[in-house]
């Protein structure tokens, strides 16, 4: 291989390495600590919410809570609910902050139509 080609190959390799390095996500210890706190919160809510029925307005049974996960944004806790077939089926994510407990009943606001409109995960 000529010296000219070797120089071009090295230059292209350096450009590829630079792109890979710049595309990596910047992380900080503060972000890692925040993520671990969110994960701990999700884990602590699991025994409380898992297996419970979730109801909406006017006593509509939405489904049963399967688990608690951290949302894609990394800051929201989601209750993963197995939605009843009558309401569209599939699993949906409901922000834990929107849930409330009235006596022993776990509730959320919403009508049949709004629950059907929630896209499945």
TrEMBL record:
- Keyword Signal: yes or no? yes
Q: Which InterPro entries match?
A: PRC_barrel-like_sf
Highest taxon of the lineage: Bacteria
Q: Which UniProt keywords apply?
A: Signal
Question: Any idea what this protein is called?
Answer: PRC-barrel domain-containing protein
Q: Where is the signal peptide?
A: 1-23
Upper classification of the source organism reads: Bacteria, Pseudomonadati, Pseudomonadota, Alphaproteobacteria, Hyphomicrobiales
């Amino acid at each position: 291989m000529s010296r000219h080609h070797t120089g071009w190959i090295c230059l292209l390799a350096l450009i590829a390495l630079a792109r890979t390095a710049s595309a990596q996500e910047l992380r900080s210890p503060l972000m890692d600590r925040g993520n671990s706190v969110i994960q701990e919160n999700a884990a602590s809510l699991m025994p409380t919410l898992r297996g419970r029925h979730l109801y909406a307005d006017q006593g509509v049974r939405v489904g049963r809570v399967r688990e608690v996960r951290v949302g894609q944004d990394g800051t929201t806790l989601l209750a993963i609910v197995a939605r009843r077939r009558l309401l569209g089926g599939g699993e949906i994510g409901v922000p834990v902050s929107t849930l409330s407990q009235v006596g022993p009943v776990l509730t959320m606001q919403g009508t049949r139509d709004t629950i059907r409109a929630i896209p499945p995960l």
